[in-house]
Design goal:
Structural class: mainly alpha
Order of helices and strands: HHEHHHHHHHHHHEH
Helix content: 55-70%
Number of helices: 13
Length: 281
């Protein structure tokens, strides 16, 4: 049963240390506009392309297919978000959808905001898939040697990035490009699990607590249109109404033009009407 247990101190200390070190960004000597824009660019690459487009919409839900070289590049970028490698991330998210907001969900919102936001990570959590469960939940990635390499070496790859940033722009680049980036991107991702299961509106009938939340969508590259996503998990497009801004969907359309993305799935109007809670969808 997925009950909260003792604190997982190695994980808790690691996440806490990232947040504390990020506070060094307030030191004037460690600020530069180049480091700030470096952080923005790396955030787009690692969380926007890496997590939202690759790990979530492509690898987990198969809402689109990326040509093989770009598929691995995007998975590499997602690994640099330090939220677990592709196998771990995908298996955990598939488990979330298998038992959303009930027993067995690693970060079910039925257990409260703080649990679904980050407490699930810092406690020993039975619902987080172990190695055997990762092999069962994500066999497509578990049997891919490149994806497994990324999964097993996510921390080493992050350290290598930090070393590269130091030689590129000194300590300022490391603080902003690693610690500030990770802190901001952690919370934008975590808010999808917490706020988007508690605050917002529902357009479609689902057996969970998912909500469409505009401000989470702005912070998370369109992932905040979460009720849409839970209604149509296969869909590469999350913002389904004209005002639901979804930047990753725009990126997918651009990748389709240059034939990097293909087999793109979206729900038909009939499917949307069938699950709609009103006639507006």
């Amino acid at each position: 049963m997925a009950h909260a247990k003792k604190i997982n101190w190695p994980i808790a200390i690691s996440i806490g240390a990232i947040h504390v070190i990020a506070l060094a960004a307030v030191i004037p000597a460690l600020f530069s506009w180049s480091s700030f824009f470096l952080m923005i660019g790396l955030s787009i690459a690692t969380c926007g392309i890496g997590i939202s487009l690759s790990f979530h919409r492509s690898l987990t839900h198969r809402g689109l297919r990326l040509i093989k070289p770009f598929n691995y590049i995007a998975a590499f970028l997602g690994t640099l978000a330090l939220q677990g490698g592709p196998v771990t991330w995908v298996a955990t998210h598939r488990q979330h959808h298998a038992a959303t907001d009930k027993e067995g969900d690693p970060h079910g919102a039925d257990r409260g905001f703080f649990w679904s936001h980050c407490e699930w990570l810092i406690r020993n959590n039975d619902a987080v898939p172990n190695d055997a469960e990762r092999a069962r939940l994500a066999p497509d990635l578990y049997n891919d040697p490149i994806m497994m390499f990324l999964d097993k070496n996510s921390v080493l790859l992050q350290i290598a990035l930090g070393v590269g940033l130091y030689f590129f722009g000194g300590l300022s680049a490391v603080i902003w490009g690693t610690f500030v980036r990770l802190t901001v991107m952690y919370h934008s991702t975590w808010l999808v699990n917490s706020a988007s299961h508690m605050f917002g509106y529902r357009t479609y009938k689902t057996n969970d607590l998912s909500r469409n939340n505009w401000w989470v969508a702005l912070l998370s590259w369109g992932e905040g249109w979460h009720n849409n996503h839970h209604a149509f998990q296969f869909s590469a497009r999350h913002g389904l109404r004209w005002f639901e801004f979804d930047p990753i969907w725009l990126a997918i359309r651009g990748l389709a033009v240059v034939r990097i993305a293909r087999d793109i799935k979206v729900p038909s109007l009939e499917m949307r009407q069938r699950l709609s809670l009103s006639s507006r969808a």
